[in-house]
Amino acid sequence: MPEHVAGHQDASTPELRVVVDMPGKVADFLRTADLDPAERATLDQGVTVRRGTGYTLRITAAPAVHRQLLDRCQPLDAATTIPTQRKARREYANRVNALGQ
Question: How far is Cα 32 from Cα 43, in angstroms, rounded to an integer?
Fold first, then answer.
């Protein structure tokens, strides 16, 4: 009987939502990208936090959603991209990779 209960709990446990700050340059790029409805909703629900001349978008989502958004901003790694956009993507990548998994 205990084995049955443990298996049931694992199947119904939702993935925890975490808060990650996304640099504004990455958020601006993603707003113009072709996103899935769930990704778009996650981006739209983010809270804007002013940082000096720019801003940070505080996003609460499952780590898998953060990884999907990170994958979507892969074009910012191109050599033709503005260096500040590449740096912003690296910062977001570091924050998402710090989540583990």
Answer: 11
* CA–CA distance, 96 with 39 (Å, rounded to integer): 15
Question: Would you state the structure tokens that stand for residue 60, as one six-digit string?
Answer: 């609460």
CA distance 60 to 17: 6
Structure tokens at 82: 């503005």
Of 64, 59, 68, 48, nearest in space to 16 by CA? 64
pLDDT in tens, 12-34: 556 788 999 999 999 999 999 88
Residue 59 in tokens: 């996003």
Selection from 85, 91, 95, 29 nearest residue 61 by Cα:
95
Domain spans in the chain, listed from the N-terminal domain onward? 15-97
**pTM of the predicted protein model:** 0.78
